[in-house]
């Protein structure tokens, strides 16, 4: 009897470290960045055209830069219609963050969605419209455009194939609390397991955001009476001198240092606020 109990104890004692090891291995392998592309493979002519040397110097100096009219009105309208169609089709879901942190809905999309080139799980998705495909290439091209102007940030940058398409409700109920996009906490702060699980967030070095709203989207409370363009929803970037609010007008491209620039999204009104976000990653952060 006691011999049997001893054997069970031995098995249990052996299982604990095995279970822990399995958890750690699973956490360290969990990544959506495995097939990220090197920057130069994401080169896109339109991005190279709109991002200038002056923008890059501003990014280096301030940690963020706002580039208006990176897409023309027709391109914005097409991308917005595609985003709206995807939103209505039910592909958006609440993000993985806690509900008090952010209340937007997101879809993780790839240019290959619904095509033979997609991973098995993504083959069943609807293919993306030309407006969204252009917006994805434009944001994914940012890292290479920065290289063309000798950006002083980290070298060896890669760009994940998936981008985030976010939707903030028109009724002012959705915002995103102040945060930095990259996780800079050490494993002493987070514990080893959590630190390993956050690998994709630790690798982030730059954020590129492209707004798919009406180009006449207005500042807080400034929407023209009867306008359906939408208003508010500023991207508030914090810096040493306070903060700068960026109006999310359709076609505006924002690039920010994901480790340094804390930011928040203010509630919007009048229209759903759509944005595409692509993160640039750096392996040297692992
Ligand atoms: O949509 C924006 O303006 C920013 C979104 C954002 O901060 C994020 O998704 O991390
Ligand atoms: Fe963010």
UniProtKB/TrEMBL annotation:
Protein family membership: Belongs to the iron/ascorbate-dependent oxidoreductase family.
Protein name: Fe2OG dioxygenase domain-containing protein
UniProtKB keywords: Iron, Metal-binding, Oxidoreductase, Vitamin C
A Pfam family recorded for this sequence: 2OG-FeII_Oxy_3
Record GO biological process: cellular response to hypoxia
Classification via Gene3D superfamilies: q2cbj1_9rhob like domain
UniProt-recorded Gene Ontology molecular function terms: ferrous iron binding; L-ascorbic acid binding; peptidyl-proline dioxygenase activity
